[in-house]
Please model this.
Amino acid sequence: MLVGAPDPLTEACGADTTRTWLCELTFEITGTEGAARVGRHLSPWITALLIVVGAWCLNRIVRRVIKRIARRMASPNGGGRLQALRRKTGLETSTGTPALRREQRAQSIGDGLRSFASILITLAAVFAILGTFGIELRSIFATAGLLGVVLGFGAQNLLRDLISGTFMLVEDQFGIGDVIDVGGAIGTVEHMTLRMTRLRDDEGVVWHIPNGEVKRVGNKSHQWSRAILDIPIAYDSDLEVATEAISHAADTMWREEQWATRMLSQPEVLGVESIAASGVVIRLAVKTLPAEQWIIARELRVRVKAKLDEAGIERPPHFFVTGPE
Model:
């Protein structure tokens, strides 16, 4: 090449700062400016295609890794290290986590993490492709400043929901099938993700609650429950006879096989709960399986009423056999 003559590579591919990899590679292989120019024009498109393929492969790998981690979380030993960590920090419960509940929690966490990872990888790929075509992100963000503010507020709420949902699942605050009270609604959890929780109340109304809006959770069916009956009797009734009748009705139910499997302890008459002008209230309590307290309480009311009638114990007017909801 003559001194002062233009460099063929520079003529075909431009200066070093703007030179594309495909143009330079084509020129090195073919040695012709025409082929190099073709490579220069195709370089952004091929680079974008490689970014798409790379993002797809990375997404598949990350999702598979997260799925494997979730599978280990759902295993009986919880991955070993996780269980050891929970024992050291005191987060492990004495009764353990039922298999179905553990699988549901692991699946919810895995689904949320896979979706979150896919969004991050997709956004990174889009930004990389825009940079490949020479589109400056600064100008886009400056032009769409107002839209960025709106999206920022939306992303803030979404991030709050995701963080709250993550803590709910990791701490096992509730699971699918639990009866919970979230302040504005009480019902059975039908579905839960990192972003929202869906529950159905006794009237069949379905509530969709963002996890970030949940300030407190009352779980009425976690690990075990308790059926409590406040039984009113007439003021002048014999307390010893009434207590014996109530205890006999509850113990008879406790010995029956179909009910014994639902009760975790023998029913206990706690004694006089309150004294009013028209009557006395005796409290009966029994520890039950999760979410079984309501059906057991209903059956106990029927049996206690029959036993009190048999013993001749009268109830005060305007009183009913009741129990906390």
In short: The first helix runs from residue 8 to 13.
